[in-house]
Write a structure and sequence with these properties.
Strand content: 15-25%
Number of domains: 1
Low-confidence stretches: none
Strand order of the largest sheet: 1-2-3-4-5-6-7-10
Structural class: alpha/beta
Radius of gyration: 19 Å
CATH superfamily: Divalent-metal-dependent TIM barrel enzymes
Shape: globular
Mean pLDDT: 96
Length: 292
């Protein structure tokens, strides 16, 4: 059985300020994330600072995330190219992102553009030993009216992988995004585990009263994002499926979404999720005394 690490997501624009607070809490990996822009951060300079901060510690970078719309904006595509080129400087071979879209158009309409853009990005990644992980977040869009990311469900993944048949292209999977779409995350994981490169540790809970009364387009949110251990996903099954498949990557806690463990309670939620996920994993490796 291969080892799965537990980490957390830290915004790239705040990494220097936030990372020290996470270093001695038991996190095994950090995922560095940017959303739509780099906020004036120079990636090469950040890579040097990351190495300096983590020097001598058993903490590594699990992924470099740039969540953008490379199908629509050339500067986003160029930013992804830069992340692919510099991933090794951060000590990772995973670049996480969105699949992009032609905003307001259907998934089908965006697919030819996806083939062109991500075909080139996948070839670039192959040349550099990098894997691109598409997060399964709908970004509030639908099949007919997309918003920033066409890579949110199984049908879209089938089309994406047919258009770009590269082993450098995979998924950054998160159960909360499946629950928000009323998809069974465990069945979904079993089907797609071989394409998963990186996992986001975020859970969700469906409010059935709101769903049954108002439906999926309700004025009130019928789903709450939660830290793992506070939502409805069976993370023991998640780890079992990943472990059986030989996954040796990272489950990276994505905080900053829980409606209760937020603000001054953020770190409390992070630590709860960390300890819970380690328990679901089976704890930490301990060698057999009789084989020492």
């Amino acid at each position: 059985m291969k080892s799965i690490s537990i980490g957390t997501c830290i915004p790239g624009t705040a990494f220097e300020q936030w990372a020290p607070a996470f270093m001695d809490k038991g996190f095994e990996r950090f995922s560095i994330n940017f959303h739509m822009q780099f906020g004036g951060v120079d990636l090469e300079q950040l890579a040097d600072k990351v190495h300096s901060l983590l020097d001598g510690r058993e903490i590594h970078i699990s992924s470099l995330g740039y969540y953008c719309n490379a199908l629509l904006f050339d500067e986003h595509r160029q930013g992804l190219e830069r992340c692919i080129d510099l991933a090794h400087r951060f000590g990772t071979n995973v670049v996480s992102t969105f699949a992009g879209c032609l905003t307001g158009q259907s998934v089908d309409a965006s697919m030819p553009r996806f083939r062109d853009v991500f075909g080139e990005l996948a070839r670039r990644a192959e040349d550099r030993g990098v894997r691109i992980a598409i997060e399964n977040c709908p970004m509030g869009g639908t099949w007919q009216h997309t918003t920033d990311n066409i890579g949110f469900n199984s049908k879209a993944w089938e089309m994406m992988f047919n258009e770009v048949p590269s082993t450098a292209l995979g998924l950054e999977w998160e159960p909360a995004h499946q629950i928000h779409q009323i998809v069974d995350p465990i069945a979904n994981l079993r089907k797609w585990v071989s394409r998963i490169v990186h996992v986001h540790g975020k859970d969700a809970t469906v409010n059935l009263d709101i769903l049954h009364e108002q439906g999926i387009h309700s004025v009130d949110d019928f789903v709450d994002s939660r830290f793992p251990g506070l939502g409805q996903t069976d993370w023991r099954q998640v780890f079992t499926i990943l472990q059986k498949a030989g996954f040796d990557g990272t489950v990276s806690i994505e905080g900053y979404h829980d409606p209760l463990f937020t603000g001054e309670w953020e770190m409390t939620g992070q630590i709860h999720a960390l300890n819970y996920l380690k328990w679901c994993r089976g704890g930490s490796f301990t060698a057999n005394a009789w084989q020492a």
